[in-house]
Design brief:
Blueprint (H helix, E strand, L loop, with lengths): L58 H30 L2 H18 L6 H11 L4 H29 L4 H29 L3 H26 L2 H26 L10 H36 L1 H16 L2 H19 L3 H38 L8 H10 L1 H16 L3 H26 L1 H28 L1
Length: 467
């Protein structure tokens, strides 16, 4: 599931709840004479009680800001997760770490409930209500996430998981939950189209996770020790990002947390939630099933290759973060031509870039993995896995941008139906093909899923544009 906006056209500043030249927020509810913003059926924040919202910026400068921050830390993250970890952990230990992370990411993805993309879309259209969305959903997701993590640990204990697995799951659960919460906090940077703040948040997160994680890895050389360090760093990063959003963009106010508001918005976002969980499950379920049939070492080999390609998903993440608010705004105004042009621009440019990068990885996969693993025989075969995943990288990127394009067009119901069906089908295929062909069955099903999804999503976009 890998992964800023700085200068905007003049007409977008006050559009759909954007910031005006004076810095006042405008939204669907309008602005009162006294300067207080209103929402249809909602409470009015007192004048001067909230910070002046940042002015939205443009796609080019946003991508530049976010790209700069991500590019600054991505090589360090790659060095840690795909070099230091592989060199200091056996394939079995690396498999345990990745198994725990992937399983808990699947479980805690239920906290998303489609809220990241839904809130991005809604706040981009009515920025004066950012505080209400932030206060309600960050609290809801935190409490819900804790319940999920505890439930998974209880189930794991009941089925007889060993101490190492339980410890790894507990640490991975906290790490995964913090990852989803910090991602939700960054939604508000995207909705306000000021991704320089997201860039700073990403740098902060990676510096903390890598510093503490590396120290723990080198000190313990165990999966659980490494996870403990990574988790401490992620908790600190979440605290910093949450505090900044609450101070600068959307104050957290417990008094506006209302069950009625949560219920209303969750029902609207529910299709996106099904879609989000389905996407995460379709990408992470295969390795979990592989662990059942082949064990942790096989997961470690697959994870060594997949982590490299996962790091490359930075490029699609940059594109989708920059284009979603603009696509949402164009669709909300009924400008189908502008929306379609944005989709073509995003999909075409991203496919060209990812095809070139994927080809390089496909050709040099063996050499890259030999260098990373430093001759460790427990990672034999990972180079060939990396070659195939590299060649499939363009499909992964295209899926990301097409999914976001449909979210911008309010097509969440279609996405929920399609991806839930595709994920259920892929789960059955994972079991059948991994049972027969091991890791190659997993790779075959993933590539087929990515290809089929790209075709189906593009076909749906064409139908929507023509309506």
């Amino acid at each position: 599931m890998s992964p800023g906006h700085e200068s905007g056209p003049g007409g977008d500043a006050a559009d759909r709840g954007g910031a005006s030249d004076s810095g006042a927020a405008t939204g669907r509810g309008g602005t009162t004479a006294g300067g207080a913003t209103t929402e249809r059926g909602g409470a009015t924040p007192p004048p001067g009680s909230h910070p002046t919202p940042p002015r939205p910026q443009g796609i080019a400068r946003n991508i530049t800001w976010l790209g700069f921050g991500s590019a600054a830390v991505s090589p360090l993250w790659f060095f840690f997760i795909s070099y230091l970890c592989i060199r200091n952990l056996s394939a079995d230990a690396y498999g345990l770490m990745n198994w725990a992370l992937w399983l808990m990411i699947i479980a805690t993805s239920a906290t998303d409930l489609g809220l990241n993309d839904f809130v991005t879309r809604e706040v981009a259209r009515q920025r004066d209500q950012a505080w209400r969305y932030f206060s309600n959903f960050v609290l809801f997701r935190g409490v819900f996430g804790v319940i999920i993590v505890v439930t998974v640990l209880l189930v794991a204990q009941l089925v007889g998981a060993g101490e190492d697995r339980l410890t790894a799951l507990g640490l991975a659960g906290v790490y995964a939950l913090c990852t989803f919460l910090i991602g939700f906090c960054r939604v508000f940077f995207r909705a306000f189209e000021v991704l320089k703040y997201e860039s700073i948040s990403i740098v902060l997160e990676k510096v903390l996770v890598l510093t503490v994680g590396t120290a723990a890895l080198l000190a313990t050389r165990t999966a659980t020790g490494t996870l403990a360090g990574m988790t401490i760093g992620m908790v600190l990063a979440l605290a910093g990002t949450f505090g900044f959003v609450a101070y600068r963009i959307a104050p957290f106010e417990f008094k506006v947390v209302k069950a009625g508001f949560l219920k209303e918005k969750l029902l609207i976002a529910a299709p996106l939630g099904v879609f989000a969980v389905a996407v995460v499950a379709s990408q992470r379920l295969g390795p979990v099933i592989l662990d059942f049939f082949e064990g942790q070492t096989a997961v470690g080999r697959f994870g060594a290759a997949y982590r490299i390609v996962e790091a490359m998903m930075l490029l699609p993440a940059l594109a989708t973060a920059a284009f979603l608010p603009r696509m949402s705004s164009a669709w909300g105004r009924g400008n189908r031509k502008e929306y379609h042009n944005l989709v073509l621009k995003a999909a075409g440019g991203l496919t060209a870039a990812t095809a070139f990068i994927g080809l390089l990885v496909g050709v040099g996969g063996h050499a890259l993995m030999d260098w990373v693993a430093d001759g460790d025989i427990t990672y034999d075969g990972a180079g060939t896995i990396l070659r195939w995943l590299g060649l499939a990288y363009p499909l992964m990127g295209l899926n990301s941008v097409l999914s976001v394009s449909l979210i911008a067009a309010d097509a969440q119901s279609f996405l929920a139906r399609f991806m839930s069906t595709a994920t259920l089908a892929s789960a059955l295929l994972f079991v059948a093909f991994i049972w027969q062909f091991g890791v190659w069955g997993l790779i075959g099903v993933l590539i087929a899923l990515w290809a089929f999804t790209s075709v189906a999503l593009w076909a749906r976009i064409r139908v929507l544009v023509r309506q």
